[in-house]
Amino acid sequence: MKYHAALAHFPKITYNRYQKLAAYFSDLKNVWEAEISDLIPSGLEENIAQEFLVWREANPIEKIFDKLEKEKIGTISINESGYPRLLKEINDPPHTLFIRGKLPADGLPTLGVVGTRKFTTYGKRACEDIVGPLAKQGFVIISGLALGIDGIAHQITLDNGGTTIAVLGTGINKSSVYPSFHQPLAEKIINSGGAIISEYPPGFAPTQYSFPARNRIIAGLSLGTLVIEAPATSGALITARCALDYNREVFAIPHPIHSLTGIGPNNL
């Protein structure tokens, strides 16, 4: 049984806390039998340890595993082989990934493609002209399943027989996929050999922080990030900044100088 998957359901289990527990306990199974006197020496703050014990009592591990199995959700932890190599290199990787579908082989080239929800005809065409041929050549296209450029990038990849990964800021169980408009697209991605992934457990609802956080995963999984179209305050620019922080390539589509949705890539 993958006890890291159950541990990832605890809302306060940050990357640092997960690593402390993994280092202290020889087997994460022991965390489910530990008392406060075991948890505090592992490095957990006393209040967090107390919260965990209360949460553990209310969330039987069998129920967690039953839900994962029912939704056909797989998981992989940062300490397991098969965790994406590029993602492991960033300074704040998710300790656990929830996966529906199949992660591509590590050796395949990956490109993050991001952009605004309020796209223009120019942005859509640019995405089609660049992403389509790359997908045909074997690039794995990674995006966030959002409305607009994200969805276009996923669909163009599928139309060209390519593989794509959608990184969500919600749970990946069917009823949690956001936006709900793209639930059919999510299933197409899975059925075409790709995957939808998240660091959040099933049932996790979208929050103000979860979408900016997922952008770092898009950048972390990718050799480079392509910004198709983005206004000055677009979340796509968060992904670009993450890519730069991770010493990855950043590409941008040029736009007319007066284009409001082109300010982001023009500035890049």
Task: Tell me about this structure.
With 268 residues, the protein is an alpha/beta fold. The protein has helices spanning 3-7, 15-24, 36-39, 46-58, 61-70, 85-88, 121-136, 149-159, 183-191, 210-221, 236-245, 263-267, and strands spanning 74-77, 96-101, 110-115, 140-143, 164-167, 195-198, 224-229, 249-252. The protein has an eight-stranded mixed sheet with strand order 1-2-6-5-4-3-7-8, with helices on both faces. The longest helix is centred in the middle third of the chain and has 16 residues, at 121-136. It is elongated, with a radius of gyration of 19 Å. The mean pLDDT is 94.
- The radius of gyration computed from the alpha-carbon positions, rounded to a whole number of angstroms, is 19 Å
Structural class: alpha/beta
Name the average pLDDT: 94
Shape: elongated
Side by side, the strands of the main sheet go: 1-2-6-5-4-3-7-8
Give the biggest beta sheet.
Answer: 8 strands, mixed
* Helix-strand pattern: HHHHHEHEEHEHEHEHEHEH
Helix content: 40-55%
Estimated share of beta-strand residues? 5-15%
Number of helices: 12
Number of strands: 8
Give the CA-CA distance, first to last residue.
46 Å
Key attributes of the depicted protein:
268 residues, alpha/beta, eight-stranded mixed beta sheet, 12 helices, 8 strands, elongated
SSE blueprint and pairings:
Layout: H1 3-7, H2 15-24, H3 36-39, H4 46-58, H5 61-70, E1 74-77, H6 85-88, E2 96-101, E3 110-115, H7 121-136, E4 140-143, H8 149-159, E5 164-167, H9 183-191, E6 195-198, H10 210-221, E7 224-229, H11 236-245, E8 249-252, H12 263-267
